[in-house]
């Protein structure tokens, strides 16, 4: 086994126990309930913010629990949706006067389990709304009913919505803002090697030397295309064009950019990609108001990176800049 | 033993003893057909539907036994929905996968609708129709997608057109026949959503296991189902209520 772990089954529970211990000043771990929540949540919120999803994408979502971002997170097993019971328990724990908002990445399992929890909350009289994050342009297809996958933009939406929630916005205002934010985000990811599956110890898929998976997700699924590997500048140029074609920003519009490592690439490489990315955005007259570089939304040890763009007006940038007290938000 | 819970001498009775007997017969039906359900799901899905359904129903029976032990004589003012709520919670909290919790949503809507001493026609219609709506909101499946909706939707239609004076037990018999017709129809469908959508044409000819589960639920209101084959061959043979 490639991983340092007691066993594949112990990876998530051991990491959660460690995380809760290390960040005991910021988070509370309800182990039987299967969720973690903020120890010192933002005092002014009228709506609790909750997210969750399969494990293996750390620091998402756990790292973003705390004042200014998420009130609670429900981690599932490795790359598997959390159970509706976890979402229900966490929602009850963090719902405010106007209820709870679920931030859900667009995957069938997550949609169904958060949806079941929402039905149960309705029976209990707790108001609940959902923001669906669907930024991955590689899964944009007219033939599929499933829609675009939710990937790197998740962390941007969690940050901006968290700051907006701190201003005391209500449930429906936040849900509308979240839908608008999600619509303003696009991502694309590439990988030169798949993640290692913990149960088999083998790569989730095989790639030859010099090949690149173009348009990967974060669960070890193959992309639609395998391409021969171009130099970094050419690759980032192609990714940038794909993002801009889907997002359609006006020249001169402000954007927030994210260069995200998928778990197995170095910071040296990510800054190289950031250089090529910002060069191209500058050339297109798009001002990256803020640029984040690092591992935010990973796929175990996948050797790859993603690029995300969010069209950002002045207020969005202000919310992006607002302080957050979480284990992993870098600013 | 099971018939103890559904007094046969009074075909109009639909109180808590009836709904409890219904849930216990549902468990007995699933146990009797679990191997067949698993075999079906291995052809169109990941093969875990029979196990998940049984897990929910074992937890249901455990919860019902615990309630019976705590209050051996059914209290006056007992709600018809109480045993249904025990089943709903067992499915929603205890079962993995997606089909199991979806059954929980249906049972929860039935339980909430059956807030009175009897499961009357109004409660039955509201519960099943509300359950269908909840399942469609969450699972986003439509009739024709080869999912459990293809059994539940015609069952709701049958309830809607069934005259109120027929009474809930006869209405459930109509609904279960309509559900089994729907189950048979799923064998002809190609899946667009749900478990069978991943195997494409290979699922053609095989009825959807989730839809079979709905058929088992509704038939068990009348009697325990011991074999799927007669119902799959001819829904008109649906067990008497």
TrEMBL record, chain A:
Listed name of the protein: Dihydroxyacetone kinase subunit DhaK
A GO molecular-function annotation: kinase activity
A Pfam family assignment: Dak1
Record domain DhaK: where: 7-329
PANTHER family named among the record's database cross-references: TRIOKINASE/FMN CYCLASE (PTHR28629), TRIOKINASE_FMN CYCLASE (PTHR28629:SF4)
Keywords (A to Z) from UniProt: Kinase, Transferase
InterPro entries: DhaK_dom (IPR004006), Dihydroxyacetone_Kinase (IPR050861)
UniProtKB/TrEMBL annotation, chain B:
InterPro entries: DhaL_dom (IPR004007), DhaL_dom_sf (IPR036117), Dihydroxyacetone_Kinase (IPR050861)
Highest taxon, organism lineage: Bacteria
UniProt name for this protein: DAK2 domain-containing protein
Naturally occurring in which organism (per UniProt): Streptomyces pyxinae
Keywords for this protein: Kinase, Transferase
Annotated ranges, domain DhaL: 17-223
Entry-linked Gene3D superfamilies: 1.25.40.340
């Amino acid at each position: 086994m490639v991983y340092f772990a007691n066993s594949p089954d112990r990876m998530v529970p051991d990491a959660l126990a460690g995380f809760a211990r290390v960040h005991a000043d910021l988070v509370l771990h309800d182990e039987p309930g299967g969720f973690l929540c903020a120890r010192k949540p933002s005092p002014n919120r009228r709506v609790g913010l909750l997210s969750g999803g399969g494990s293996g994408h750390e620091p998402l979502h756990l790292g973003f629990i705390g004042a200014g971002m998420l009130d609670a997170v429900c981690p599932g097993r490795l790359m598997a949706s959390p159970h509706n019971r976890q979402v229900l328990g966490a929602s009850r724990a963090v719902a405010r006067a106007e209820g709870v908002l679920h931030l859900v990445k667009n995957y069938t399992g997550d949609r169904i389990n958060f949806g079941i929890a929402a039905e149960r909350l309705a029976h209990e009289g707790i108001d609940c709304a959902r923001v669906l994050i669907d930024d991955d342009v590689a899964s944009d297809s007219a033939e599929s009913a499933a829609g675009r996958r939710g990937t790197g933009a998740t962390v941007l939406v969690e940050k901006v919505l968290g700051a907006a929630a701190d201003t005391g916005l209500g449930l429906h205002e936040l849900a509308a803002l979240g839908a608008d934010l999600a619509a303003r985000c696009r991502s694309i990811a590439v990988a030169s090697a798949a993640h290692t599956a913990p149960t088999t110890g083998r790569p989730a898929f095989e790639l030859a030397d010099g090949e690149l998976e173009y348009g990967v997700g974060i669960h070890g699924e193959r992309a639609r295309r395998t391409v021969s590997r171009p130099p970094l500048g050419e690759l980032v140029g192609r990714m940038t064009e794909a993002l801009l074609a889907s997002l359609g920003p006006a020249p001169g519009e402000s954007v927030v950019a994210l260069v995200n490592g998928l778990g197995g690439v170095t910071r040296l490489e990510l800054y190289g990609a950031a250089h090529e990315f910002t060069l191209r955005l500058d050339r297109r007259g798009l001002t990256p108001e803020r640029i984040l570089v690092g591992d935010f939304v990973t796929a175990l040890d996948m050797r790859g990176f993603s690029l995300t763009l969010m069209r950002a007006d002045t207020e969005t940038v202000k919310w992006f800049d607002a302080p957050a007290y979480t284990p992993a938000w870098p600013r | 033993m099971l018939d103890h819970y559904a007094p046969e001498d009074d075909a109009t009775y639909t109180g808590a003893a009836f709904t409890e007997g219904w849930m216990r017969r549902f468990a007995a039906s699933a146990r009797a057909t679990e191997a067949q359900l698993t075999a079906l799901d291995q052809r169109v899905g990941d093969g875990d539907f029979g196990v998940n359904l049984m897990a929910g129903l074992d937890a249901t029976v455990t919860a019902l036994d615990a309630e019976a032990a705590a209050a051996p004589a059914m209290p006056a003012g007992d709600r018809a929905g109480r045993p249904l709520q025990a089943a709903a919670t067992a499915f929603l909290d205890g079962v993995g996968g997606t089909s199991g919790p979806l059954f929980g949503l249906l049972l929860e809507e039935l339980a909430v609708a059956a807030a009175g001493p009897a499961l009357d026609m109004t409660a039955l219609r509201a519960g099943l129709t509300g359950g269908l709506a909840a399942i469609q909101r969450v699972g986003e499946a439509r009739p024709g997608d080869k999912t459990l909706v293809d059994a539940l939707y015609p069952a709701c239609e049958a309830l809607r057109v069934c005259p109120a004076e027929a009474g809930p037990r006869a209405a459930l018999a109509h609904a279960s026949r309509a559900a089994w017709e729907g189950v048979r129809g799923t064998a002809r469908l190609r899946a667009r959503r749900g478990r069978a959508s991943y195997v494409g044409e290979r699922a053609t000819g095989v009825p959807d296991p989730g839809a079979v589960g709905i058929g088992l639920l509704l038939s068990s209101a009348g009697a325990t189902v011991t074999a799927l084959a007669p119902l799959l061959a001819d829904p008109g043979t649906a067990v008497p209520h």
